[in-house]
Design goal:
The chain has helices at residues 2-51, 59-73, 91-111, 116-140, 150-173, 175-182, 185-215, 217-225, 229-241, 243-255, 298-310, 318-343, 359-381, 398-402, 406-440, and strands at 78-80, 83-85, 146-147, 259-261, 264-266, 271-272, 355-356. By secondary structure, the protein is mainly α.
Amino acid sequence: MPHTDLLEAVEQDRAEIARSTRVRVLAVAAVGPVLTGYAAVAAVLALVTAIAARALFTTTGVLAAAVPGWLGAYQVPVRIEGHELGALPLLPTLLALVLVWRTAASAAERLGVETPREAAQVVGAIVGAHAAVGLSLALLCSGGTVTIDPLAGLYYPALLSGIAAVAGVLPRAGLSRVLSERMDAVALRGLRAGLLAVAALLAAGALVLTLALALSFSTVRHLFAIEDFGGGIGMLLLSLGYLPNAVVAATAFSAGPGFALGSVVVSPMDFTGGTVPPLPLLGALPEQGQAWWLVLFAFPAAVGTLVGWVLREVDESPKVRVRAVVVASVVVAMAFAVLGGAAGGALGGGPFDPLDLRAAWLSVALVAWVAVPGAVVAWTAGPQPLRVEPEPEPEPDSDLDSDFDEDDLDDLDDSDDADDSDDDLQDSGAAELTEDEAEDDPAEEPAEDADPADEDAPADAGEQPASGR
């Protein structure tokens, strides 16, 4: 029928439009973060080159320099004349991940993603584009002054963009609901408490860094003053880029293991001074150790106490609450193992190589700082199990007593008195009867009162005299 054919055609057109819209949205989500990130890196390099006093600004040079710059934003190690630069700034990485996260969330909203399969299409498009671009740029850098391992250029951008994309589509894909249904409730609470602890520890590290910069303000200002305007802007941008690295290093310092920059070791329990690069951010490094640094251990201990307080009502059993604290401490250890490894690395093989944040020892120390006070607080501050007491002996039913009033009690007393008087009368009557019977009974009379004539009577009352019959 013509009408039916028209409806089918309309449905096909709608399906084709929906398909073309999906392809366009996925293409934008895949290419958008790559182009935007590359443009941002090129703009920063152009600004620094333009204001630097001894730099030669060319468009070709800026675009070429932006290639390893984009890869460095995704933490791909770069080799400059054979010397590896692995300690890359974390601020560009955080900005790139935020860009990918926002792009994935917007694409999921426009496509109406509701299932994990639809979410996987968005994540796959973003990961595939980053892997392809990273591999291509790494191959493009081969043979020059700056070289990059093609395999690293492939999996570093793919891994980081995949994590950010999953975080973007997670709220709409129903994955969070699936995970909450399949995960143990105690483990899920421990996971959330662990993420809270990671944020709190980073906040404590930022506070320690701010305090160090404030105490070394004159040194930091002097390091800025020795540069011209262009050099000062470059130093400021470089310090801002390494600011997240410094926050992680300050967290490691407050936790105990500290960090090392070449031969310089900075830790509350182990300090070795020395020369450092003239970066204003490094002006916060002390010249000698101080005994009061041990007070900074209160920060990670306070975070562990916070974890225990948050998990104090997870379950009535203290052992289950402690298990949740252990899960939170494991999350903290894994997070700072990654952060410590990403914030440090090689520095070109020079006198300040490497930047070592001691990621393994940092994880162990934070496990102790979170697990020990957290377990104590969760065990003692939460609900305690009820003690089993012996059952009391059964008492008389109070309902029976409540049925009697005062009048009934008086009646009972009167009846008891009447019964007592009757008993007394019966006892007195029985006594009188006994006395009368004793008087009437001849057997009770004395023997001298008996008639002498009766002595001839037969001894046995049952014998009869012989009859004359």
